[in-house]
Design a protein that fits this description.
Length: 539
C-alpha cells in the first residue's frame, strides 16, 4: 500500500474525480468509514455519547458525515464547531436533520461547555478539526480545543480519541507535531496512509493506525509513481515462499552463517536459530572454535564449521580463504553478527567479502560485518552478488559518515539515498523499519514496538532475512518480508508478555506461528486494512 504526502493524496483525489468519482462521494465514504471504525471501537453506539470536534475544512465535513451516521445508529452525538464553517453548510444541515446536536466554540468563550462535553459520560471523541491541508502552528480556538482534549488523557474515565485522517497539529508530510497536538487511541486515515503518521515524533501521537477505503479507483497509485509503500499483511501473505509437498531440505537452501565470537556467543545462536525457524533447509554455523564449542550445546540442528581464532576468541583472518574454498556449497552467506570489530576482523571481512573473485551468492551483512566494512575504502564497489545490509541507526551513521541524529532526522531519505549509491538493499532498523531498494522504492514496516529494544533482536532479523533469501526470494523481498515477520512475531510476544522484559530468544519460537498466521488467515480486503503502527506504546 502506497504511503503519500498531502500533495500526493490531493493528486490522487483529483485523478479520481477525472475518472468520474464525485468529490462528495469520496467525502461521504470517508465519513461512513470513520463512523464504522468508531462503532467497532466501542462495540455498540446506541445510547453512547460521542463528541465530534469539527473544523472549517473538509476534515470537519468528514467528521459531520460520521456524526450523522452515528446518530442514525442511536448514539447521542454532539458536533462541536471549533471554527466557523462555510455558509451554507450542507453537511452540518444534514447532520442536524438526523439528530446531531450542534454547538459552537464562538458561543463558548471560556470553552466551559467543551470541558463538560469531554467530561464523564463521553465515551469517544472524534478529532476532525484539521486534516492534511494545514501545517502551520495551532492557534486560537483550535489550539484551545486540542489542548483541552489532550488534558483529558490523565483521567481514568477519559474518552477514547479517534483522529480523522491524522491528529490535529501533526504534519502529514514530516511527522512534526505542534505542542498542542492531541494523542489519539486510533487514527483512521483516509485512502492512503500519510508519511507523517509513520515518522517520529508524530507517529507517537497516532495510536493504532487504520486505513479507510474512500472509493478511490484502482490503478491511481501506479499513475502517480509513488516510491513509498507500507508493508501489509496481504503483501506479506503473497510474498511467502511456497513449500511444495515434494520438497526436501535442499529445496529451501543452505545458509552459511559467519557469526559470533567469544564475547558474543548469543549472536551466533540467535541468527542461526532464526534462520532455521524461518524455513531454511540447512544452516551451517561458521564461528571461532571456542565459540562453536559453546554454541553447539544449544544449536543441535545446525552444521558446525569451527574456524581458526585469534587470542581474544575472534575469527582469524586466515579463516577467509577456508570459507571461500567451500563457498559453492551454500545458497546464502550471512556475515557479521557478533564478530567483533578489530583490525583482524576487518581484514577477515575484506578477504571474505571483497577479494577477487567476487562472491556470487546472495549475502546479508549485519552488525560488526557493517562496522568492519566501514573501515574499508570503497567497499561497496567490491561487494559481489546481491546483498542486504541491516544497519541500526548507529551503524548507518558509521557507514555513511553522518551522525546518528542526522540518520534519524529523515530515515526514509537516508535509506533511499544510500541504497541507490551502494546499489544494495538497505534495512534501516528501528521503529517503522525502512527497507530501501537501489531503484528508490522504500517500504516501511507497520510495527513500532519497544519490546524490540533489546540486545539480539537484530541478530534474529538477520537470520530471518537470510532464510528467506535461501528460499529464493529477491534481496528486496526477502528484506521486506523478513522485517514484517520479525515485527509480527514481536507483536505476538508483546501481547503475551507486554513491552518490558521481552528478550530476543522469545521471538524464535514465535516465527513459525507468524508464518502460519500469514498462510492461514485470509488477505485483508480493500475495505478495512489495519496496521498496528504503534503496538504497544501505552496509547
Amino acid at each position: 500500500m502506497k504511503i503519500v504526502t498531502a500533495a500526493q493524496m490531493a493528486a490522487l483525489e483529483q485523478a479520481a474525480q477525472r475518472r468520474g468519482v464525485r468529490a462528495d462521494a469520496l467525502m461521504e465514504q470517508a465519513g461512513l468509514a470513520v463512523a464504522q471504525a468508531a462503532r467497532r471501537e466501542l462495540g455498540k453506539v446506541a445510547g453512547v455519547r460521542i463528541v465530534v470536534l469539527a473544523g472549517s475544512g473538509n476534515n470537519g465535513a468528514d467528521g459531520l458525515v460520521a456524526a450523522r451516521h452515528l446518530s442514525i445508529w442511536g448514539a447521542q452525538v454532539i458536533a462541536y464547531m471549533v471554527t466557523r464553517r462555510p455558509d451554507p453548510d450542507p453537511k452540518q444541515a444534514l447532520a442536524r436533520q438526523f439528530g446531531v446536536i450542534i454547538q459552537w466554540a464562538a458561543d463558548d468563550p471560556n470553552l466551559a461547555a467543551l470541558d463538560r462535553l469531554l467530561g464523564p459520560g463521553c465515551r469517544l471523541v472524534i478529532d476532525a478539526i484539521l486534516g492534511t491541508g494545514r501545517s502551520r502552528a495551532l492557534e486560537g480556538s483550535v489550539r484551545e480545543a486540542a489542548t483541552r482534549l489532550e488534558a483529558r488523557r490523565g483521567d481514568s474515565r477519559r474518552p477514547l480519541v479517534l483522529a480523522l485522517d491524522l491528529p490535529t497539529g501533526l504534519n502529514a508530510d514530516t511527522g512534526q507535531v505542534d505542542p498542542a497536538c492531541p494523542t489519539a487511541d486510533l487514527t483512521v486515515t483516509l485512502g492512503r496512509p500519510k508519511a507523517g503518521l509513520l515518522a517520529f515524533p508524530g507517529a507517537a501521537q497516532v495510536g493504532r493506525l487504520e486505513v479507510a477505503d474512500i472509493g478511490l479507483p484502482s490503478g491511481l497509485d501506479e499513475e502517480k509513481d509513488i516510491p513509498l509503500e507500507l508493508l501489509t499483511r496481504s503483501w506479506a501473505s503473497r510474498a511467502l515462499p511456497a513449500r511444495p509437498l515434494n520438497s526436501h531440505k535442499g529445496t529451501f537452501g543452505h545458509v552459511l552463517a559467519v557469526v559470533g565470537s567469544r564475547n558474543y556467543v548469543g549472536a551466533a545462536y540467535l541468527a542461526c536459530q532464526a534462520a532455521i525457524r524461518s524455513g531454511a533447509g540447512l544452516v551451517t554455523l561458521a564461528s571461532p572454535e571456542s565459540t562453536d564449542a559453546i554454541a553447539a550445546v544449544k544449536l543441535t540442528e545446525v552444521i558446525h564449521l569451527p574456524l581458526p581464532e585469534d587470542l581474544e576468541g575472534r575469527v582469524h583472518p586466515d579463516a577467509a580463504p577456508l570459507l571461500r574454498s567451500q563457498i559453492g556449497r551454500y545458497t546464502v552467506l550471512l556475515a557479521g553478527c557478533g564478530l567483533g570489530c578489530t583490525g583482524g576482523t576487518a581484514e577477515f571481512i575484506r578477504r571474505l567479502l571483497l577479494d577477487d573473485p567476487p562472491l556470487s551468492l546472495p549475502t546479508v551483512v549485519d552488525a560488526d560485518g557493517l562496522n568492519n566494512l566501514a573501515r574499508l575504502p570503497q567497499w561497496w564497489q567490491r561487494l559481489g552478488g546481491p546483498a542486504v545490509l541491516t544497519p541500526h541507526p548507529g551503524e548507518m551513521a558509521t557507514l555513511t559518515g553522518l551522525t546518528t541524529a542526522q540518520v534519524q532526522q529523515d530515515r526514509v531519505a537516508v535509506a533511499r539515498q544510500w541504497a541507490a549509491r551502494w546499489n544494495l538493499s538497505v534495512v534501516l532498523k528501528g521503529a517503522h523499519t525502512a527497507v530501501a531498494q537501489p531503484d528508490g522504492l522504500v517500504r516501511l514496516s507497520p510495527f513500532a514496538n519497544p519490546a524490540l529494544a533489546s540486545g539480539g533482536t537484530g541478530d534474529v532479523l538477520t537470520g530471518v532475512i537470510a532464510a528467506l533469501l535461501a528460499q529464493g526470494l529477491s534481496a528486496a523481498d526477502a528484506a521486506s518480508l523478513g522485517v514484517y515477520l520479525h515485527g509480527l512475531a514481536a507483536q505476538a510476544v508483546s501481547q503475551r508478555l507486554g513491552d518490558t522484559g521481552v528478550i530476543a530468544s522469545d521471538l524464535l519460537d514465535e516465527l513459525p506461528h507468524a508464518i502460519l498466521s500469514l498462510r492461514r488467515r485470509p488477505e485483508d480486503g480493500p475495505d478495512r486494512p489495519k496496521f498496528p503502527a504503534q503496538f504497544p506504546i501505552g496509547k
